[in-house]
Amino acid sequence: MSAQAPQKRLYIKTYGCQMNVYDSERMADILAPLGYAMSPTPQGADLVVLNTCHIREKATEKVYSELGQIRLLKLETQAAGGTMTIVVAGCVAQAEGEEIMRRQPAVDLVVGPQAYHQLPELIARTHRARGERLATDFAAEAKFDALPTERRPTGVTAFLTVQEGCDKFCTFCVVPYTRGGEWSRPADAIEAEARGLAEQGVRELTLLGQNVNAYAGEGGLAALVRRLAAIPGLDRIRYTTSHPRDMDDALIAAHAEVDALMPYLHLPVQSGSDRILKAMNRAHTADSYLRLIGRIRASRPDIAISGDFIVGFPGERDADFEATLQLVGDVDYATAFTFKYSRRPGTPAAALPGQVDEAVKDERLARLNDLINAQARAFNTRQTGRTLPVLFERRGRHEGQLIGRSPYLQAVHVTAPDRLIGQIVPVHIDGAARMSLAGSLVPTRELEAV
Ligand code: 5AD
Ligand code: SF4
Q1: Domains of the chain
Q2: CA-to-CA distance for 55 and 52, rounded, in angstroms?
Q3: Residue nearest to ligand 2 atom 1, measured at CA
Q4: Ligand 1 centre from 27 Cα, in Å?
Q5: What is the CA(113)–ligand 1 centre distance, in A?
Q6: Nearest CA to ligand 1 atom 17
Q7: pLDDT by residue (tens digit) across 71-128?
Q8: At CB < 8 A and 24+ separation, what contacts does 97-100 make?
Q9: Which of 198, 211, 218, 349 has a beta carbon 3.0–4.6 Å from 172's, enabling a disulfide?
């Protein structure tokens, strides 16, 4: 299901040269997936773009007088309960951005010719700044938008939302539009809730946020983790999902210093090709991601790294996909989530040329999954023979069996009595599969000998 965004009206006035005519067409193309259709007049337009020319003094003055007229239309629209966004683009914008905003405050946005590909993001930010939500402009089905549903504590583990929204504007993603900007809950409220959960018997807490490591409370996520780790009974803390950009030194250090912080990190990279990463607006390269992983591992050598990948992003060639396989090989993941690129109406990538064939996507997905599955299996196999602390969560499918989690988030199946549910117990790991481990309780005698 991919409903088209509702129609909005776009008026573009072009000044000057052929270059500007071409740019105006490009802007219309970029904005079409957001639901903007061209309107011949500025009256009643939702978005007005003046694509300006700086060549002559007179042309600039013409822009200001036009803006004066459009301001009146904007006021009319507002009086009628509507909104109009005014954008000044082109060479005048480039040359005198601040001056324009000062002389004509009705202008919402000034963009130079280098930034047209960012128009959807910039416009969304402008709307947000006015407190508008764009959620209704998107298909209701937002597959990638939902956080894991928050649970009432059914026992020993619980989720706790600490942050919502996203300011990153990856070009494939609906979240920044549907969920709005990054927003963090106050630490006091989080701590109060966490204490309440601990009092109800929760021992492991997973902090949730679309960009959880962008948590903006004082001291960032690292300070929050340290604060929560001090709550009696809360023995384990996890967080998801993180963005490489927000992985700061304090959080990396916390992985070395805070015992309760579990050695598992979900850090999506999406692709191993710098060309594709750029088109995705990810703001990291394959190399900077690898260096980041190196710093994290220096802090916590045994950490399990997990990721998200998209195959078949528009324009992805064989060589780009090979670069992704190369990066996966370099990182050595404990697990990862893989997706075929899916066109989300209203996102910039939906308008990109070079949409990849479904059959090619399928083939790439299968190859990537094979590699990641092999890595996951190897990661799990490396745990065999070790004794790991396992938090038992519930009964397993077999009589007398319990299921718990290792620090690395693998499910561990163990023959054990019910009374151990809610306890963290040393378990000898006997065997491994792709998704889980099998183990046995360590006899008390042996433990004493350790
Ligand atoms: N197509 C495919 N995968 C997507 N994701 C987000 N948007 C899309 C899309 N349009 C994936 C990303 C993200 C995860 C939650 O979902 O990998 O990290
Ligand atoms: Fe979407 Fe995540 Fe990118 Fe934000 S950081 S735009 S939520 S993929």
Answers
A1: 8-138 (3.40.50.12160), 142-381 (3.80.30.20), 387-449 (2.40.50.140)
A2: 9
A3: 173
A4: 25
A5: 29
A6: 308
A7: 999 999 988 888 899 999 988 777 777 888 888 989 988 888 777 877 888 888 887 7
A8: 100/67
A9: 349
